[in-house]
Amino acid sequence: METSHVRVLTLQIHKETSGLYLAEVLWDRTLVTDPERYASIAEAIHAEAGAVPEGFACFVEIRYQDLSSGTMSLENARLQAREVADRLVSLAREVYLTAGA
User: Fold this and answer.
1) CA 57 to CA 76: how far, in whole Å?
2) Is residue 1 in a domain?
3) Per the structure, how many domains does the chain have?
4) Domain boundaries, position 22
5) Residue 20 domain-assigned?
6) Beta pairing class for 8-17 and 20-27
7) pLDDT of 68-86, one tens digit each?
8) CA atoms within 13 A on the CB side of 32
9) What is the distance, to the nearest Å, from the Cα of residue 67 to the centroid of all Cα atoms in its chain?
10) Are strands 20-27 and 36-38 parallel, antiparallel or unpaired?
11) pLDDT class of 59 with cuts at 50, 70, 90
């Protein structure tokens, strides 16, 4: 029985300054797309999920401030970019408040 390998990419988003985010898509520590800067996390998710070459991968894990969205399809990441961004920001805020307590 043959098994197929499923690629799960990582979309890493780094906050550079207020309103400026650097996004890079990686597979096994190798860049899949060129790093780009965006005005928002949601914009980065939407654009980068759509920039992955067709057929290269179907799934992505989105990371922001060492937090993860979990694994999802590239299509869902693109379509749900705002919700995913809001969830990651909310988690980051919760971690910040917990660490400061």
Assistant:
1) 13
2) no
3) 1
4) 8-100
5) yes
6) antiparallel
7) 999 999 999 999 999 999 9
8) 25
9) 10
10) antiparallel
11) very high
State the average pLDDT for the chain.
93
- Write out pLDDT tens, residues 18-47: 999 999 999 999 999 999 999 999 999 999
SS (H, E, C) the chain: CCCCCCCEEEEEEEEEECCEEEEEEEECCEECCCCEEECCHHHHHHHHHHHCCCCCCCEEEEEECCEEEEEEEHHHHHHCHHHHHHHHHHHHHHHHHHHHC
Phi, psi of 36 (to 5 degrees): -135, 155
Q: Are 30 and 58 in contact (CB under 8 A)?
A: no
Residue 2 domain flag: no
Query: What is the pLDDT at residue 6?
Result: 84
Residue 12 falls within a domain, yes or no?
yes
